[in-house]
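Fig. S4 source data, part A: sequence.
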Amino acid sequence: MPRKIYKLCVSYDEAGARLRQKVAENVKGASDFVWQASFRDLESAELPPGEGAVWVYPVFMQSGRTVTETLPELLRSLYAERGLSPALEFQPVWGAERTWNLGVWKSLQNELEQDASLLVVAHGVTGRELPPEPSDFLEHSKVWLPKGTEMALAYFGVSPSVEEVLPSLKGKKVLVLPFLIGEGKHMREDMPSPELAARFGKELKILPPFGTFYLQAEHAYRSAEPERDAGKKSDWPDMTDLEDVRAWYLQQFEETQKELERIPGYGAMREGAAPVIEQITKAFAGVELGNGIGLLQADYRDMGGFGEVFRGLADSDERHDWTKLTDAMLNHCYTALCFTDPEGYRFLVPAFMCCDLRCRMWSCMEVTCPEDFAEWGLEDTALLSADQRRAMEAYVDFCHSHREEDGENRKLPWQWN
């Protein structure tokens, strides 16, 4: 029997509570209850049960000593007080996210005046190698910000400092983005001053800390419709109108495809991926959706939809050939594997795996999400054939060897024991 999986979102303190709540909403599966806590005042009573595995989601910007050493030690100590020793599975820090809501990029574009420079200022780490998250964020920004935008990185307390970087920037106007979760000591005491900028002939505009900026950008991106329907999101369809929902999906797929084509390297198959794709395609050949929950239905379910529209979308879902699910469809409906059912999972998972291996999956997708696996029978051969299981294992092995750092966290349901 697979272990029970619990989820715990931890911020450093209550300055990150709003973002922590948002992260908890994002990681919550259809049947999950997610725990939340602050590292600074964490107590045993706030932790989830410890008779299974605990997935820890650090709501931190960087993978520093607190996340990699102090937090694991504290959790083990608190569980030990209760006579428990659960398996702690640490997920990447929130700052390592590579698929920021489009609202972030659009908000940054709006803030960047002509010929302005972007300066990201991050928490320094003394006596050890600097974590990769701030520089990774800047590298990813090149895809979304206007071509030629000057970008630089500085740190609080270590080199390169703001004082060292600021004079080298070409732009007279400098947009400062604190790579921080919330309003803490660095925001109050350590941000570059107008006087410092003036010494180098610069003008500064300091944005809110990244966690706050993200929440503001997402709110703007998903702002409310006019008063006629206060509960409806501006970029959402009329959730009670089947035809409007169908038309909205078509529009979203068109827009997503345009966004994908802007990404450098899109469609360049991962080196060595061809044999794995062939194995997946062969193992899942002929698999149909049957009476399962398809891609559109699962995505609509994620948006909170149900009833007649949910049932009506069954006719719009591809039900016979998973290879017809396009890159745009899979990227837009990237949470579908968490909101489908057993038959739907078996039909959708090969499409997601192949899309990822072809370097076309740019949304946040988790093929191995374990929601409801115990009930589904994925731990044995009740749902997946031996060939299909081996194909999925080949995909995960490939992730371990070829993908970014979170590849090593990927496991299949029958690999958790």
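Fig. S4 source data, part B ends here. DSSP finds 17 helices and eight strands in the chain.
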